[in-house]
C-alpha cells in the first residue's frame, strides 16, 4: 500500500473521525439508533481500515493482540458485574434500581450506560480479534493457484 | 384481480418477501458445493428471519417508541413495538458469531484439505475412511 | 420525577439460586480469559462446575414436591420481564447436566492433555464453561427467546469444542462445519417458530404464552409455529432423519468433549421439546394435531432399529456408541409418543439414565484412546487384561445400555414397556424388547474384543491414570446405584411428568 498516497492520507484523516462517531453512537443509544453493538462495530472498523492500509504489523503495535483478547473478556465481566452489584445490594440480578436506590429512573439510566459500555468494549475487541485471526493466516498464493 | 386477492398479496408483502428470502437462503445452503457459499446462504436465511420480526413490529401510523423530553405521554400517540428490534439485535449478533465461526472453520479446512469444495472434501474423506477400514480389516484379519 | 425510595425487601442468597446456577459458570469463563493463566484454568472451571452442581441439588430438593420457583431478572415482573422458572422437570435436567460436567472435568484434565496442544487448553476450559452456561440457561429459563439465546451460546461453543479434535483427525473440522450449518438452520427454524408465537400471542413468557395459546389453538399461525419449533428443536435432538451431524461430531471430537456432549446436549434439547410441547402448546393442542402418531412415533421406531443396526456394523467403538445414542434418543421420543404420564415419566428417566450411561461409555473410550492409541476394535484387542479397571467399567455401562436388571438402563426400559402396555400398544412393547436385543449384539462385540481376543505383542497398554479412572468409576457406579435405588429419579420423573401433563395449570 506504499504507493497509494490518496488512500493513506484519507485513512489518516478518517480514522479519528470514525472513532469519534463510534463514541457518539455508543452514548446516544437512549435517544437515537445506537448503543453498544453498533458502536463497537464502527470502532472496530476504524482499526481494521488502519490495518488494511498501513499493514497488520502496525495496527498490532497500536492494539496488541493480548490486549484484544483481554478486552473481550473484560466487557463481558463489566456487564455481568453490574448485575452482580445488584445481587450484592439485595436486589434481583440486573435490577438497575440498585445503582441509585433513591431515584430508580436514574438507576436505569446509569445501568444501561454501564452495560452498553461493556457491550461496546467486547464487540470492538471481538471484531478486531476476528480480523487479526483471519489476516494473520493469509496464505501466500502462488501463481498456479489462481 | 379482485380486491381480495390484491389485498392478500400486497397486504402480506412482508411475509411473501420473507418466504422468498428464506427459500433462497435454504436453497443456497443445500445446492451449492462451495463451503463459503453455504455460509452466505445461511446468512441470507437468517436475514429473512430478521425481516420477518421487524416487519411484524411496525404499527401502521406508529412513531418511534421513545419518550418525549418532557416525559408527558400523549394517550393518542401510537408507538411501534420496540421489542422485535431488541430480539433482532440479539439474533444479528448470533448470526455474526456463527458466520465468523464458520469462516474460521473454512480457513482451517482449506489449510488441511487444500480445497473448499464439498465434493472434493468428500473424496478426500472417503479415501481416509477406506484406508482406515482397510487397516482395521488387516488388523482383525491377523487375529481371527 | 419520583424521588421516594420504593419499598424493597432485600433478596437472600437462597432466593438468588436460580440466577447463580447460570451466573457462576458464565462469569468464570471470561475470568479464565482475563487471568490468562494455564494453571488456573482447570481449577476455576472445576470449582464453577461444582458450585453449579451444588446449586442444582438444592434447587431439585426444593421443587421435588411439585412446587416451582420463579425468579425475576432485573426485578421486572413477568410477563414483561424475563423469568427463570424451576420446577421438577427443569431441576432434574439441571442436576444431570451439572453433575455430568463436574464428574467429567477431572477426567478431562488428563484426557485433553493428550489430545490437544497445551497452548489451547486455557481457552478450551473457558469455552467448556460457556457451553455449560448455555446448557444450564436453556433448561432454567422461562422466556421463549431466552431459550434461543442460550441454545446458541451452547451450540457455538460446541462447534468450537468439536473442532478441537482436529489435532488428532482433520475430519473434526468438517464435522464441526456440518454441525454448524445444520445446527444454525435448526436454531433459525426455532426462532421463526418463536416469531410466529409472538405474532399470535404478543408475549414471550412461556407461562403467559400457554394461556394465550389455549384460547386460539386452531389458528394457522399457532400450527405453523408448532411445526417450526418441533423441526428446529428436532434437529438438535437428532430425531432420526435429522441426525446426520451426530455420528461425525461425536466420533471426531476430543474424547472428554464427546463424553460431555453425549450426556447433555441432546438431553437438553429433548427437555426443550417437552417444555414447548406440553407446557406452552399444552396437551390439548398436541392431541389435536397428528404430530405424535405420524411423525414422532414412526421416526422413534426407525431410530431405534435403524441406528442400532448401523451401530452393529461399525468398526470404530466411538462411532458405534454415537449411533447407539441415536437409537436411545428414539426411546425417549417413543415415551413422548405414548402421550401419557407413564410415557413422559419413562422419557424423563431414560433421559437421565442414558446421560450417565453414555458419559461413562465415552469416558472409557477416551481412556482407551489415551493408552491404546485409537478407538477402533483392532486397537482394543485384549485390553481386558492390560486395562482391567477401565474394561470392567465399560462392561457395567454397556449392561446399563442394554438394560440388564440391576442397572439404570433397566429402569428406563421397564418403564417404557409398562407405558406401552398401559396404552394398549403391546406390539410396541415387543419392538422395545427386540431393539434391546440389537443393543446386546453391539455391546457383546465390544466385550468380546476386550476380553476374548489377544492383544498385539508389541502394544502393551498401561493402566489408565487415576484421574481418569476415578470419574469413570463414579459414573459407572452411578449407573448401578440409580438402577438399584431409583427413588430419587423415579420421584423426580413422576413429579416432572405430572407437571408437564398438567399443561398451563402445571405452571401456576
Can you summarize this structure?
The complex is a heterotrimer of chains A (146), B (144) and C (508). With 146 residues, chain A is mainly α.
Unreliable stretches covering 5 or more consecutive residues of chain C: 1-5
Rg estimate of chain C, integer Å: 22 Å
Number of strands of chain C: 2
Largest sheet of chain A: none
Helix content of chain C: over 70%
Domain count of chain A:
1
Please outline the major beta sheet of chain C. 2 strands, antiparallel
Outline of chain C? globular
Number of helices of chain C: 20
- Proportion in β-strands of chain A: under 5%
Count of DSSP strands of chain A: 0
The whole-number mean of residue pLDDT values of chain C reads: 89
Order of helices and strands of chain C: HHEEHHHHHHHHHHHHHHHHHH
Number of helices of chain A: 5
Q: Tell me the quaternary state.
A: heterotrimer
Account of the protein in words:
The complex is a heterotrimer of chains A (146), B (144) and C (508). Chain A has 146 residues and is mostly helical. In chain A, 73% of the residues lie in helices and 0% in strands. Chain A has helices at residues 5-27, 36-54, 56-62, 65-88, 104-136. Chain A is elongated, with a radius of gyration of 19 Å. Chain A starts with a helix and ends in a 10-residue tail after the last helix. Chain B is mostly helical and 144 residues long. Chain B has 2 domains: 3-113, Helix Hairpins, CATH 1.10.287; 117-144. Chain B is built from 5 helices and no strands. Chain B has helices at residues 3-11, 13-31, 35-57, 83-113, 118-143. The longest helix of chain B has 31 residues, at 83-113. Chain B starts with a helix and ends with a helix. With 508 residues, chain C is an all-alpha fold. Chain C has one domain (17-507). The longest helix of chain C has 32 residues, at 341-372. Chain C is globular. Chains in contact: A-B, A-C, B-C. The B-C interface holds B 22, 26, 29, 35, 38-39, 42, 45-46, 49, 52-53, 56, 83-84, 87, 90-91, 94, 97-98, 101-102, 105-106, 108-109, 112-113, 121, 125, 128, 132-133, 135-136, 139-140, 143 and C 145, 148-149, 152, 156, 159-160, 163, 166, 170-171, 173-174, 176-177, 180-181, 184-185, 187-188, 191-192, 195, 198-199, 204, 315-316, 376-378, 381, 453-454.
Amino acid at each position: 500500500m506504499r504507493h497509494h498516497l490518496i488512500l493513506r492520507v484519507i485513512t489518516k484523516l478518517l480514522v479519528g473521525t470514525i472513532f469519534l462517531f463510534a463514541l457518539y453512537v455508543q452514548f446516544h443509544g437512549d435517544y437515537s439508533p445506537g448503543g453498544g453493538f453498533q458502536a463497537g462495530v464502527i470502532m472496530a472498523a476504524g482499526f481494521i481500515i488502519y490495518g488494511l492500509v498501513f499493514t497488520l504489523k502496525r495496527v498490532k503495535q497500536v492494539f496488541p493482540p493480548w490486549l484484544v483478547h483481554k478486552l473481550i473478556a473484560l466487557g463481558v465481566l463489566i456487564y455481568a458485574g453490574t448485575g452482580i452489584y445488584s445481587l450484592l445490594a439485595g436486589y434481583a440480578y440486573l435490577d438497575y434500581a440498585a445503582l441509585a436506590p433513591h431515584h430508580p429512573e436514574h438507576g436505569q439510566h446509569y445501568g444501561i450506560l454501564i452495560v452498553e459500555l461493556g457491550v461496546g468494549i467486547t464487540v470492538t475487541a471481538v471484531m478486531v480479534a476476528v480480523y487479526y485471526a483471519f489476516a494473520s493466516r493469509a496464505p501466500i498464493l502462488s501463481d498456479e493457484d489462481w | 384481480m379482485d380486491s381480495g386477492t390484491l389485498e392478500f398479496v400486497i397486504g402480506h408483502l412482508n411475509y411473501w418477501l420473507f418466504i422468498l428470502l428464506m427459500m433462497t437462503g435454504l436453497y443456497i445452503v443445500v445446492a451449492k458445493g462451495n463451503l463459503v457459499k453455504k455460509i452466505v446462504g445461511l446468512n441470507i436465511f437468517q436475514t429473512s428471519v430478521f425481516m420477518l420480526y421487524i416487519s411484524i413490529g411496525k404499527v401502521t401510523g406508529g412513531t418511534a417508541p421513545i419518550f418525549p423530553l418532557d416525559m408527558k405521554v400523549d394517550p393518542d400517540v401510537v408507538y411501534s413495538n420496540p421489542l422485535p428490534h431488541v430480539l433482532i439485535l440479539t439474533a444479528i449478533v448470533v448470526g455474526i458469531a456463527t458466520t465468523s465461526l464458520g469462516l474460521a472453520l473454512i480457513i482451517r479446512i482449506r489449510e488441511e484439505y487444500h480445497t473448499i469444495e464439498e465434493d472434493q472434501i468428500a473424496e478426500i474423506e472417503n479415501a481416509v475412511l477406506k484406508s482406515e477400514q482397510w487397516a482395521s480389516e488387516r488388523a482383525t484379519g491377523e487375529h481371527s | 420525577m419520583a424521588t421516594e425510595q420504593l419499598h424493597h425487601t432485600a433478596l437472600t442468597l437462597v432466593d438468588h439460586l436460580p440466577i447463580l446456577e447460570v451466573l457462576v459458570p458464565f462469569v468464570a469463563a471470561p475470568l479464565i480469559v482475563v487471568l490468562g493463566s494455564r494453571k488456573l484454568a482447570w481449577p476455576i472451571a472445576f470449582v464453577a462446575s461444582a458450585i453449579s452442581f451444588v446449586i442444582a441439588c438444592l434447587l431439585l430438593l426444593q421443587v421435588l414436591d411439585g412446587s416451582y420457583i420463579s425468579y425475576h431478572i432485573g426485578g421486572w415482573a413477568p410477563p414483561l420481564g424475563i423469568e427463570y422458572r424451576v420446577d421438577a422437570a427443569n431441576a432434574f435436567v439441571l442436576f444431570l447436566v451439572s453433575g455430568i460436567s463436574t464428574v467429567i472435568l477431572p477426567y478431562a484434565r488428563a484426557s485433553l492433555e493428550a489430545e490437544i496442544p497445551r497452548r489451547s487448553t486455557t481457552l478450551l476450559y473457558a469455552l467448556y464453561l460457556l457451553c455449560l452456561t448455555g446448557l444450564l440457561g436453556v433448561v432454567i429459563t422461562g422466556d421463549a427467546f431466552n431459550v434461543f439465546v442460550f441454545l446458541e451460546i451452547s451450540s457455538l461453543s460446541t462447534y468450537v469444542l468439536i473442532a478441537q479434535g482436529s489435532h488428532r483427525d482433520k475430519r473434526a473440522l468438517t464435522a464441526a462445519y456440518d454441525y454448524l450449518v445444520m445446527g444454525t438452520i435448526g436454531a433459525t427454524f426455532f426462532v421463526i417458530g418463536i416469531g410466529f408465537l409472538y405474532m399470535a400471542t404478543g408475549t414471550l413468557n412461556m407461562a403467559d404464552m400457554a394461556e394465550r395459546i389455549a384460547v386460539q389453538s386452531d389458528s394457522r399461525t399457532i400450527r405453523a409455529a408448532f411445526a417450526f419449533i418441533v423441526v428446529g428443536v428436532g434437529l438438535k435432538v437428532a430425531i432420526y432423519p435429522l441426525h446426520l451431524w451426530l455420528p461425525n461430531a461425536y466420533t471426531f471430537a476430543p474424547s472428554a468433549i464427546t463424553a460431555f456432549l453425549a450426556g447433555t446436549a441432546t438431553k437438553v434439547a429433548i427437555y426443550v421439546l417437552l417444555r414447548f410441547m406440553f407446557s406452552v402448546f399444552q396437551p390439548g393442542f398436541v392431541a389435536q394435531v397428528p404430530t405424535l402418531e405420524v411423525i414422532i412415533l414412526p421416526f422413534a421406531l426407525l431410530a431405534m432399529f435403524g441406528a442400532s443396526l448401523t451401530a452393529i456394523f461399525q468398526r470404530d467403538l466411538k462411532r458405534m456408541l454415537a449411533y447407539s445414542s441415536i437409537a436411545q434418543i428414539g426411546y425417549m421420543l417413543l415415551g413422548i409418543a405414548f402421550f401419557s404420564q407413564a410415557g413422559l415419566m419413562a422419557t424423563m428417566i431414560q433421559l437421565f439414565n442414558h446421560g450417565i450411561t453414555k458419559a461413562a461409555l465415552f469416558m472409557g473410550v477416551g481412556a482407551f484412546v489415551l493408552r491404546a492409541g485409537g478407538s477402533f476394535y483392532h486397537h482394543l484387542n485384549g485390553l481386558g487384561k492390560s486395562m482391567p479397571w477401565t474394561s470392567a467399567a465399560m462392561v457395567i455401562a454397556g449392561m446399563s445400555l442394554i438394560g440388564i436388571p440391576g442397572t439404570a438402563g433397566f429402569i428406563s426400559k421397564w418403564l417404557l414397556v409398562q407405558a406401552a402396555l398401559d396404552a394398549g400398544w403391546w406390539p410396541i412393547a415387543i419392538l422395545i424388547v427386540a431393539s434391546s436385543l440389537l443393543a446386546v449384539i453391539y455391546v457383546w462385540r465390544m466385550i468380546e474384543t476386550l476380553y476374548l481376543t489377544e492383544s498385539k505383542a508389541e502394544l502393551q497398554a498401561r493402566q489408565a491414570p487415576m484421574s481418569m479412572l476415578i470419574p469413570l468409576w463414579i459414573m459407572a457406579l452411578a449407573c448401578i446405584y440409580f438402577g438399584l435405588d431409583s427413588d430419587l429419579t423415579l420421584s423426580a420423573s413422576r413429579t416432572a411428568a405430572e407437571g408437564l401433563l398438567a399443561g398451563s395449570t402445571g405452571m401456576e
